[in-house]
């Protein structure tokens, strides 16, 4: 049976153990809600040593990393390992996961593991904004799904996760999926760029390998990093370096970029890296310029892909799509993302969604009061430690869970990962 998804240009793939089919569909404009900028988190512990403060703000995972599991779900063709895999499986383990959405397919490692772990699954939806990742994930999903009976229906979609609601609505209408009529039981987001994207110099994400200044994750992004560097006003360039890169030297760099582009427009990453090397104080050495370059690249990537607005919109939509009792798990890789996840989770569990601007003051007060309502878990899932209970849900991770030292040793790229999980209440308190 063919599937029609209204509102999308991108092809929808429906996979089941019986059938695999594509259908390209018509496009209409999708609503792109304006997101408010995430508020700056107060630094309350300025005087404490940095390492101590970092350890306190997070909970290093106490889950024993299963290297066999990691090896099993890695993609052997590419140097990619799923991050916090055991913790993600644990987060969804207690649920009867009849429906599950992976918003960031990547190489489909997390997806494959979750599907295999939940035999009760009847509906799986995976999406990625990157056509290369989407193509890579297809055979892997097909492989795990083909070993299951016709009970499990699987769909993959080349799409931005901010459009999750439209995608699920379209699937529900087309295939008459009663299983998602009251929402999906599990949603997972693994943010950031994948190893495949970073390691492919043609994509322009790598500081160390020369490539075009592109950085678009998917074809929907209209601007490339070169477009921003060559055409944006000076103060806008400064703003993204400061706000998205958290680069302290942003004023100097903004001036250098604007001066350099007047002589020769930017077209490759090497040009930008050379400018950063020259602008970074010699005393800071290689680590100094690499760190600055990483922050500048992060700023450009976030701006090109509108990452922060998309994330906030997506979190509200995901909560909206969750079934009562369903869980949303998010892995973030830098403090800007994590701040948005943390703040939006608080809004969601306390206010059920975005705050009405008129009520902002009163609700903010209410939210802050509820935040202090933290309880130590008394049921079986003691690995979650502290929780935050709100009117509409519970944050199961008051502090984010970070990889164990063993996982960090095995996969150094996971070291900045943070996992936060929330559960929607069956009925508001
Ligand atoms: C860290 S990788 C995910 C890896 C994946 N969990 C796995 O097991 O292989 C992040 C993926 O998210 C995708 N992505 C980033 N932003 C997205 C968005 N707004 N919508 C959909 N996919 C997105 C990227 O293209 C990338 O493939």
From TrEMBL:
- Which HAMAP family does the protein's record reference? 16SrRNA_methyltr_H (MF_01007)
Q: Which UniProt keywords apply?
A: Methyltransferase, S-adenosyl-L-methionine, Transferase
Q: Which family does it belong to?
A: Belongs to the methyltransferase superfamily. RsmH family.
The keyword Protease is assigned to this record: no
Task: Identify the SUPFAM superfamilies for this entry.
Answer: Putative methyltransferase TM0872, insert domain, S-adenosyl-L-methionine-dependent methyltransferases
NCBIfam families for this protein: 16S rRNA (cytosine(1402)-N(4))-methyltransferase RsmH (TIGR00006)
One GO term in the molecular function aspect is: rRNA (cytosine-N4-)-methyltransferase activity
List this protein's GO terms for biological process.
rRNA base methylation
Lineage of the species this protein comes from: Eukaryota, Viridiplantae, Streptophyta, Embryophyta, Tracheophyta
One Pfam family recorded for the sequence: Methyltransf_5
Q: Tell me if Electron transport is a UniProt keyword of this record.
A: no
Protein name as it appears in the record: Putative methyltransferase-like protein 15
Which superkingdom, per the lineage?
Eukaryota
Organism, by scientific name, is Carex littledalei
């Amino acid at each position: 049976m063919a599937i029609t998804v209204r509102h999308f240009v991108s092809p929808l793939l429906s996979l089941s153990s019986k059938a695999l089919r594509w259908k390209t569909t018509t496009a209409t404009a999708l609503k792109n809600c304006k997101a408010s900028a995430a508020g700056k988190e107060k630094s309350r512990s300025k005087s404490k040593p940095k390492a101590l403060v970092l350890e306190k703000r997070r909970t290093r995972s106490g889950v024993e990393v299963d290297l066999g599991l990691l090896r099993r779900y890695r993609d052997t063709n590419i140097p990619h390992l799923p991050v916090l895999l055991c913790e993600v499986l644990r987060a969804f383990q207690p649920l009867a996961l009849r429906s599950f959405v992976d918003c960031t397919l990547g190489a489909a490692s997390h997806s494959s593991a979750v599907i295999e772990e939940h035999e009760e699954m009847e509906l799986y939806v995976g999406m990625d904004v990157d056509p290369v990742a989407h193509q890579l994930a297809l055979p892997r999903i097909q492989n795990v799904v083909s070993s299951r009976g016709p009970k499990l229906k699987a769909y993959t979609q080349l799409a931005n996760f901010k459009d999750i609601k439209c995608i699920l609505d379209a699937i529900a209408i087309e295939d008459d999926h009663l299983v998602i009529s009251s929402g999906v039981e599990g949603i997972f987001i693994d943010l950031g760029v994948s190893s495949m994207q970073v390691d492919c110099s043609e994509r322009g994400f790598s500081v160390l390998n020369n490539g075009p200044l592109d950085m678009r994750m998917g074809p929907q992004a209209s601007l490339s990093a070169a477009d921003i560097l060559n055409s944006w006003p000076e103060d806008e360039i400064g703003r993204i370096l400061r706000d998205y890169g958290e680069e302290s030297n942003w004023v100097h760099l903004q001036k250098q970029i604007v001066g350099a582009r007047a002589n020769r427009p930017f077209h490759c990453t090497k040009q930008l890296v050379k400018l950063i090397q020259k602008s970074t104080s010699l005393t800071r050495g290689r680590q100094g310029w690499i760190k600055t370059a990483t922050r500048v690249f992060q700023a450009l990537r976030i701006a090109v892909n509108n990452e922060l607005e998309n994330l906030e919109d997506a979190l509200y939509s995901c909560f909206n799509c969750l079934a009562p009792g369903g869980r949303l798990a998010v892995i973030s890789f830098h403090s800007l993302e994590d701040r948005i996840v943390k703040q939006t989770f608080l809004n969601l569990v306390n206010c059920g969604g975005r705050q009405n601007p008129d009520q902002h003051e009163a609700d903010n007060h209410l939210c802050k009061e509820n935040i202090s309502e933290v309880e130590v878990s008394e049921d079986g899932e003691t690995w979650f430690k502290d929780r935050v209970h709100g009117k509409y849900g519970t944050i199961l991770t008051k502090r984010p869970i970070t990889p164990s030292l063993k996982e960090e040793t095995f996969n150094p790229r996971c070291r900045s990962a943070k996992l936060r999980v929330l559960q929607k209440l069956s009925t508001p308190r």
